[in-house]
Amino acid sequence: MSERKQTEFGHLLTADNRSSFAKYRELVIGRGGWWELFRYECLMMFAAPVPGAVGYWLRKVTYPWMMGSVGRGTAFGRNMMIRNPSKIFVGSRVVVDDNVVLDAKGVESGRITVGDEVVISRNNILSCKGGYIKVGNHTNIAQNCLIHSEEKVEIGDEVIIAAYTYIVGGGNHDYSRLDIPIIEQPNLHKGGIVVEDNVWIGARVTILDGVTVHSGSVIGAGAVVTEDVPKNCVVAGIPAKVVAERS
Protein backbone atom coordinates (compact mmCIF):
# COMPACT_ATOMS: atom_id res chain seq x y z
CA MET A 1 0.00 0.00 0.00
CA SER A 2 1.39 3.40 -0.93
CA GLU A 3 1.90 6.16 1.61
CA ARG A 4 -0.82 8.74 0.96
CA LYS A 5 0.35 12.28 0.29
CA GLN A 6 -1.85 15.32 0.59
CA THR A 7 -1.66 19.05 0.26
CA GLU A 8 -0.51 20.79 3.41
CA PHE A 9 -3.98 22.15 4.08
CA GLY A 10 -5.62 18.79 3.44
CA HIS A 11 -3.24 17.24 5.93
CA LEU A 12 -4.24 19.80 8.56
CA LEU A 13 -7.90 18.79 8.24
CA THR A 14 -7.54 15.01 8.07
CA ALA A 15 -4.41 14.07 10.03
CA ASP A 16 -6.06 13.78 13.46
CA ASN A 17 -9.28 12.64 15.09
CA ARG A 18 -10.86 16.03 15.67
CA SER A 19 -14.61 16.31 15.33
CA SER A 20 -16.23 17.44 12.09
CA PHE A 21 -17.25 20.65 13.87
CA ALA A 22 -13.64 21.41 14.81
CA LYS A 23 -12.59 20.80 11.21
CA TYR A 24 -15.33 23.16 10.01
CA ARG A 25 -13.96 25.82 12.35
CA GLU A 26 -10.48 25.27 10.91
CA LEU A 27 -11.86 25.60 7.38
CA VAL A 28 -13.81 28.84 7.83
CA ILE A 29 -11.81 30.84 10.39
CA GLY A 30 -8.45 29.07 10.66
CA ARG A 31 -6.85 29.06 14.08
CA GLY A 32 -9.45 31.30 15.73
CA GLY A 33 -11.44 30.37 18.80
CA TRP A 34 -15.13 29.91 19.54
CA TRP A 35 -15.84 33.63 19.79
CA GLU A 36 -14.40 34.25 16.31
CA LEU A 37 -16.52 31.40 14.94
CA PHE A 38 -19.68 32.73 16.60
CA ARG A 39 -19.06 36.23 15.22
CA TYR A 40 -18.39 34.81 11.76
CA GLU A 41 -21.59 32.73 11.77
CA CYS A 42 -23.70 35.72 12.87
CA LEU A 43 -22.33 37.95 10.13
CA MET A 44 -22.77 35.32 7.44
CA MET A 45 -26.35 34.68 8.57
CA PHE A 46 -27.60 38.21 9.21
CA ALA A 47 -25.46 40.53 7.04
CA ALA A 48 -24.28 38.56 4.00
CA PRO A 49 -27.67 37.91 2.29
CA VAL A 50 -29.38 41.26 2.97
CA PRO A 51 -30.20 43.09 -0.31
CA GLY A 52 -30.17 46.78 -1.19
CA ALA A 53 -28.71 49.76 0.61
CA VAL A 54 -29.43 48.27 4.04
CA GLY A 55 -27.30 45.24 3.19
CA TYR A 56 -24.43 47.36 1.90
CA TRP A 57 -24.53 49.42 5.09
CA LEU A 58 -24.61 46.34 7.34
CA ARG A 59 -21.61 44.78 5.63
CA LYS A 60 -19.70 48.06 5.56
CA VAL A 61 -20.11 48.36 9.32
CA THR A 62 -19.67 44.73 10.38
CA TYR A 63 -17.20 43.06 8.02
CA PRO A 64 -14.20 45.02 9.37
CA TRP A 65 -14.89 43.33 12.72
CA MET A 66 -13.79 39.96 11.38
CA MET A 67 -11.37 40.80 8.53
CA GLY A 68 -7.69 41.62 8.85
CA SER A 69 -8.31 45.21 7.72
CA VAL A 70 -10.76 47.13 5.52
CA GLY A 71 -10.12 50.64 4.19
CA ARG A 72 -12.56 53.52 4.02
CA GLY A 73 -15.32 53.64 1.42
CA THR A 74 -15.21 49.92 0.59
CA ALA A 75 -18.48 48.20 -0.42
CA PHE A 76 -19.26 44.49 -0.15
CA GLY A 77 -21.98 42.79 -2.21
CA ARG A 78 -24.47 40.10 -1.23
CA ASN A 79 -23.78 36.44 -0.54
CA MET A 80 -20.02 36.64 -0.37
CA MET A 81 -18.16 33.59 0.90
CA ILE A 82 -15.31 34.62 3.19
CA ARG A 83 -12.92 32.01 4.57
CA ASN A 84 -10.20 32.74 7.15
CA PRO A 85 -11.27 36.42 7.29
CA SER A 86 -8.47 37.51 9.62
CA LYS A 87 -6.01 36.87 6.76
CA ILE A 88 -7.89 39.08 4.27
CA PHE A 89 -6.81 42.72 3.90
CA VAL A 90 -8.82 45.08 1.68
CA GLY A 91 -7.86 48.66 0.81
CA SER A 92 -9.91 51.83 0.47
CA ARG A 93 -12.69 52.54 -2.05
CA VAL A 94 -12.82 48.90 -3.17
CA VAL A 95 -15.97 47.37 -4.69
CA VAL A 96 -16.51 43.65 -4.11
CA ASP A 97 -19.66 42.58 -5.96
CA ASP A 98 -22.21 39.82 -5.24
CA ASN A 99 -21.28 36.13 -4.86
CA VAL A 100 -17.52 36.72 -4.63
CA VAL A 101 -15.40 34.13 -2.80
CA LEU A 102 -12.41 35.37 -0.78
CA ASP A 103 -10.78 32.22 0.58
CA ALA A 104 -7.50 32.59 2.47
CA LYS A 105 -7.43 29.09 3.92
CA GLY A 106 -4.25 27.13 4.33
CA VAL A 107 -1.01 27.64 6.17
CA GLU A 108 -0.31 30.75 8.20
CA SER A 109 1.57 32.52 5.40
CA GLY A 110 -1.46 32.39 3.13
CA ARG A 111 -3.32 35.67 2.82
CA ILE A 112 -5.26 37.83 0.38
CA THR A 113 -4.30 41.49 0.04
CA VAL A 114 -6.31 43.87 -2.16
CA GLY A 115 -5.09 47.41 -2.87
CA ASP A 116 -7.03 50.66 -3.17
CA GLU A 117 -9.75 51.44 -5.74
CA VAL A 118 -10.03 47.86 -6.98
CA VAL A 119 -13.18 46.41 -8.56
CA ILE A 120 -13.85 42.70 -8.07
CA SER A 121 -16.96 41.88 -10.08
CA ARG A 122 -19.55 39.26 -9.27
CA ASN A 123 -18.91 35.52 -9.13
CA ASN A 124 -15.13 35.84 -8.83
CA ILE A 125 -13.09 33.38 -6.76
CA LEU A 126 -9.82 34.38 -5.08
CA SER A 127 -8.56 31.25 -3.36
CA CYS A 128 -5.38 30.35 -1.50
CA LYS A 129 -4.23 26.86 -0.63
CA GLY A 130 -0.97 27.52 1.11
CA GLY A 131 0.06 30.51 -1.02
CA TYR A 132 -0.89 34.17 -1.07
CA ILE A 133 -2.68 36.53 -3.47
CA LYS A 134 -1.81 40.20 -3.81
CA VAL A 135 -3.85 42.57 -6.03
CA GLY A 136 -2.47 46.06 -6.67
CA ASN A 137 -4.19 49.45 -6.82
CA HIS A 138 -6.72 50.52 -9.49
CA THR A 139 -7.09 46.98 -10.86
CA ASN A 140 -10.35 45.75 -12.39
CA ILE A 141 -11.33 42.05 -12.34
CA ALA A 142 -14.39 41.27 -14.46
CA GLN A 143 -16.95 38.60 -13.59
CA ASN A 144 -16.50 34.82 -13.30
CA CYS A 145 -12.71 34.74 -12.93
CA LEU A 146 -10.66 32.30 -10.85
CA ILE A 147 -7.41 33.37 -9.18
CA HIS A 148 -5.88 30.46 -7.29
CA SER A 149 -2.58 30.35 -5.43
CA GLU A 150 -0.62 27.49 -3.95
CA GLU A 151 2.57 29.56 -3.70
CA LYS A 152 1.99 33.13 -4.88
CA VAL A 153 -0.06 35.19 -7.30
CA GLU A 154 0.92 38.85 -7.55
CA ILE A 155 -1.14 41.20 -9.72
CA GLY A 156 0.14 44.75 -10.16
CA ASP A 157 -1.46 48.18 -10.41
CA GLU A 158 -3.88 49.24 -13.15
CA VAL A 159 -4.40 45.75 -14.52
CA ILE A 160 -7.51 44.86 -16.54
CA ILE A 161 -8.66 41.25 -16.25
CA ALA A 162 -11.58 40.35 -18.52
CA ALA A 163 -14.28 37.79 -17.75
CA TYR A 164 -13.74 34.04 -17.38
CA THR A 165 -9.99 34.34 -16.88
CA TYR A 166 -8.09 31.64 -14.97
CA ILE A 167 -4.88 32.56 -13.17
CA VAL A 168 -3.69 29.39 -11.50
CA GLY A 169 -0.49 29.61 -9.47
CA GLY A 170 0.00 25.94 -8.65
CA GLY A 171 -2.02 22.78 -9.07
CA ASN A 172 0.63 20.86 -11.02
CA HIS A 173 1.03 17.19 -10.12
CA ASP A 174 3.74 14.74 -10.98
CA TYR A 175 2.15 11.89 -12.94
CA SER A 176 5.20 9.80 -13.78
CA ARG A 177 4.32 6.84 -11.55
CA LEU A 178 1.66 4.32 -12.53
CA ASP A 179 1.54 2.41 -9.24
CA ILE A 180 -0.14 5.18 -7.23
CA PRO A 181 -2.93 7.67 -8.08
CA ILE A 182 -1.89 11.03 -9.49
CA ILE A 183 -3.45 12.83 -6.50
CA GLU A 184 -0.94 11.08 -4.22
CA GLN A 185 2.08 12.15 -6.26
CA PRO A 186 3.99 15.32 -5.35
CA ASN A 187 2.84 18.81 -6.24
CA LEU A 188 5.22 20.50 -8.67
CA HIS A 189 5.35 24.21 -7.93
CA LYS A 190 6.99 26.54 -10.45
CA GLY A 191 7.21 29.71 -8.37
CA GLY A 192 3.73 31.15 -8.77
CA ILE A 193 2.51 33.89 -11.12
CA VAL A 194 3.40 37.58 -11.40
CA VAL A 195 1.36 40.02 -13.50
CA GLU A 196 3.10 43.38 -13.53
CA ASP A 197 1.54 46.85 -13.81
CA ASN A 198 -0.55 48.12 -16.74
CA VAL A 199 -1.46 44.75 -18.28
CA TRP A 200 -4.66 43.94 -20.19
CA ILE A 201 -5.77 40.30 -20.02
CA GLY A 202 -8.53 39.38 -22.48
CA ALA A 203 -11.54 37.16 -21.89
CA ARG A 204 -11.13 33.43 -21.22
CA VAL A 205 -7.36 33.63 -20.84
CA THR A 206 -5.55 30.94 -18.84
CA ILE A 207 -2.24 31.81 -17.17
CA LEU A 208 -0.33 28.83 -15.77
CA ASP A 209 2.10 28.50 -12.88
CA GLY A 210 5.62 29.88 -13.30
CA VAL A 211 4.67 32.73 -15.66
CA THR A 212 5.58 36.41 -15.38
CA VAL A 213 3.56 38.84 -17.51
CA HIS A 214 5.68 41.96 -17.84
CA SER A 215 4.31 45.50 -17.74
CA GLY A 216 2.48 47.06 -20.65
CA SER A 217 1.53 43.74 -22.23
CA VAL A 218 -1.75 42.61 -23.78
CA ILE A 219 -2.98 39.00 -23.79
CA GLY A 220 -5.53 38.19 -26.50
CA ALA A 221 -8.83 36.52 -25.68
CA GLY A 222 -8.71 32.76 -25.27
CA ALA A 223 -4.92 32.53 -24.99
CA VAL A 224 -3.17 29.94 -22.82
CA VAL A 225 -0.02 31.48 -21.38
CA THR A 226 2.68 28.94 -20.53
CA GLU A 227 5.80 31.15 -20.79
CA ASP A 228 6.81 34.64 -19.70
CA VAL A 229 5.29 37.52 -21.67
CA PRO A 230 7.81 40.25 -22.65
CA LYS A 231 7.27 43.90 -21.80
CA ASN A 232 4.98 45.94 -24.10
CA CYS A 233 4.04 42.97 -26.28
CA VAL A 234 0.79 41.52 -27.57
CA VAL A 235 0.48 37.74 -27.27
CA ALA A 236 -2.26 35.39 -28.46
CA GLY A 237 -2.93 31.74 -29.22
CA ILE A 238 -2.55 28.31 -27.62
CA PRO A 239 0.15 28.36 -26.42
CA ALA A 240 0.44 32.15 -26.41
CA LYS A 241 3.07 33.65 -28.72
CA VAL A 242 4.12 37.22 -29.45
CA VAL A 243 2.08 38.59 -32.37
CA ALA A 244 2.92 42.30 -32.08
CA GLU A 245 4.90 44.86 -30.12
CA ARG A 246 3.52 48.05 -28.65
CA SER A 247 5.68 50.97 -29.69
Characteristics:
single chain, UDP N-Acetylglucosamine Acyltransferase, domain 1, nine-stranded mixed beta sheet, 27% strand, globular
Description:
This protein is an alpha/beta fold and 247 residues long. It has a single domain (9-245), classed as Hexapeptide repeat proteins (UDP N-Acetylglucosamine Acyltransferase, domain 1, 3 Solenoid), CATH 2.160.10. The protein is 18% helix and 27% strand. The protein contains 4 helices and 23 strands. The protein has helices at residues 8-14, 20-29, 34-46, 52-66, and strands at residues 69-70, 75-76, 81-83, 88-90, 95-96, 101-103, 112-114, 119-120, 125-128, 132-135, 140-141, 146-149, 152-155, 160-161, 166-169, 193-195, 200-201, 206-207, 212-213, 218-219, 224-225, 233-236, 241-245. The protein has a 9-stranded mixed sheet with strand order 2-5-8-11-14-17-20-22-23. A hairpin with a 4-residue loop joins strand 22 (233-236) and strand 23 (241-245). Helix 3 (34-46) packs antiparallel against helix 4. The longest helix has 15 residues, at 52-66. It is globular.
